[in-house]
Amino acid sequence: MRLALLLLSSLAFAQQPKQQQRDLTVEKVDEGAPPATGFVIPRSYAVIVGISHYKNLPANRQLQYAERDAQAIYTILISAEGGNFKAENVRLLTGEKATLSAVRAEIGSWLPGIAGSKDRVLIYFAGHGFLVGGKGYLAPYDFDLGRPAETGFPMDELGSIMGGKIQAKTKVLLTDACHSGAISPEDTANLNQRLTSLNKSLFSLTASRAREQSFESPDLRGGHGVFTYYVVTGMEGEADTSGDGVVTADELAEYVHTQVRDYTGGKQNPTSDKSNYDPEMQLAFIPSHARPSASPAQKFGTLIFESNMDDVELFIDGQSRGVLQKGKSFSVPGLAAGEHTIKAVHSGYEPDGPRQQLVYPGREDTVSIKILIPRRRNKAAADLLDQGIKEYHKGNEQGYRQAAETLDRALLADPNYSQAAFYQGLAYSALFEYDKAKAAYERAIEIDPGYLEAHANLAGMLLDIGDVDASIRHLNLVLQRQPDHAVGLTLLAQAYRFKDLYPQSIAAARRSIAINPKTAESHLWLADSLRLSGKLDDAPAEYQQYLKLSDFDSKLGGKLNYYVLGSLVGMGKKKRVAERDIWNDYHNMAYYGLCECERRTGRLDEAIRDCQRALTYDSKDFFAHYTLGLAFMTKAGKTQSIAELDPALRHFQTMIALAPDVNEAKYARKNIATIEEVLKQVK
């Protein structure tokens, strides 16, 4: 019998998978599929680096907007009307995270290891660049001017990686650094040999020529590097002079060169070399920008906006361009000649626009924004909103249905009632009528583009339906406008967790906790991401903190499916309103996470206890049954006792009955065979 149990102990470990992961949603997979316009978008990977404040540089060497630049590039890359990169395929390093070792790991190891021969790769750097002894260096966060060779990222090393190690079909290099032009073939003979032999696969666009500065300006969307501002606006569609809905390398290069030179009065001249890239290389996809039978716009103009009120958000062609302040001119250069739609909004007031504004080539024109009319609510609409909110807070299916209908009447009485549309979105979300919920949230945002709660709740609903990329885009917008938005950070931690982007999830959760330590769900996503990234000693405390903070009546938990101006956030309920609530789902997750941590660190009795607790919240959780089977089986091997074999066998069998086709089921079947053989020998 002892030999049989020793065999059992050995096989219990052999049959378990390396790492278990559990997701509550199934994400839609559409990468590489052609969108409605017929564009074929390749699988794409990017590394984005932005450093404003340097560890070892004096105060006069610090930058203002490099990290904002990096965030703007990230936003346009993951946009469906832009780069069309998957969020999980974009690595963002900003501030103190952008150390030399981190930059080398992402650019020198991750990109070459993951990109295939048919893929698209982009590297962006915003920060300092230095020329030392005729050699160019990009400066990571820990750069030391006294030791450039040891602490800088050599530009020729970057060229070697792009030219040799990365095998992608399309390679894009964007550098916004003081001396980033040193990477251009025209300035560095050593690098020229590498770059000119890349068979037109590398599009290298740098902010300036060697010995030139790269400028920043507070007047560009609240503060950006001039080069990056035009790269972003170009990829948003302004560079699409052909009007076919695609921004090509040639279009972006021409647009950025022209606009940066004009804006800086010739002091900054971006560089690229057409001999190194296919001019038709596709960089951004903007289907809404495509115009039939369009004649190419060859010139660009500038609009200068003046507002009569502070905090007025400006939209041009449906794209937010920044916030206007009274008495301060706001310049929007680089607009394609022709008609553009402008709209300016301020919460609580009727908007100015939408209206058409003509942009003349090579000319600056001033546009006056007048926000004048307070948005008045008729009493009937306001009363219906109050009634709809009361019905919504009943927290049951009938209440949600009544609320949706009442709020519909409120919107008929006042079509511009953004709060009514928002609460209607909440009601439809609770009813799992996601198309209607999405339309309601989008209506609230269309009425009031600065309605951050609507953006955040729409992001939460998108997590429910598995559209994680769209959710991240909305959350990115929320956090750009309000970096300390704790709910947005919590949802972002959740979204990154579902993308298996555990370091990003951990960072977002920790930021949320720093702002509001009592947001229970932040601790849950932090715990889950710590566990799944192998930090088994750190995760249990966060699971326990979630359980402590969420220790309230489960009936209340069922009512709080989305936060309403406040505390609890989530991805909704997995089943119909009357059947399950999110409180049970999350408690199941927390106890399962504790169980896994304990099992993997050899605390088998605690693991068995917590997996059994997980099953009290979801008796059909096949992961919990499987993990319990492993825990009982491992304990049998360690204690040389057959008492745990029956429960191990039972949980493995239950797991197979619940999920016969998942990967773990094959391990469960092997372990069942082992247990049955041991029991046979014992008898």
What does this structure look like?
The structure is a single chain. 47% of the residues lie in helices and 15% in strands. Strand 1 (44-50), helix 2 and strand 2 (90-94) form a beta-alpha-beta unit. It folds into four domains: 2-24 and 581-682, Serine Threonine Protein Phosphatase 5, Tetratricopeptide repeat (Alpha Horseshoe); 44-211 and 269-276, Rossmann fold (3-Layer(aba) Sandwich); 300-369, Sandwich (Immunoglobulin-like); 379-531, Serine Threonine Protein Phosphatase 5, Tetratricopeptide repeat (Alpha Horseshoe), CATH 1.25.40. The protein is globular. By secondary structure, it is α/β, with parallel strands linked by helices. Residues 10-37, 184-199, 294-298 and 553-580 have low confidence and may be disordered. The longest helix is centred in the C-terminal third of the chain and has 20 residues, at 663-682. Helix 13 packs parallel to helix 15 (486-498), helix 22 packs antiparallel against helix 23 (645-658) and helix 22 (622-639) runs parallel beside helix 24 (663-682).
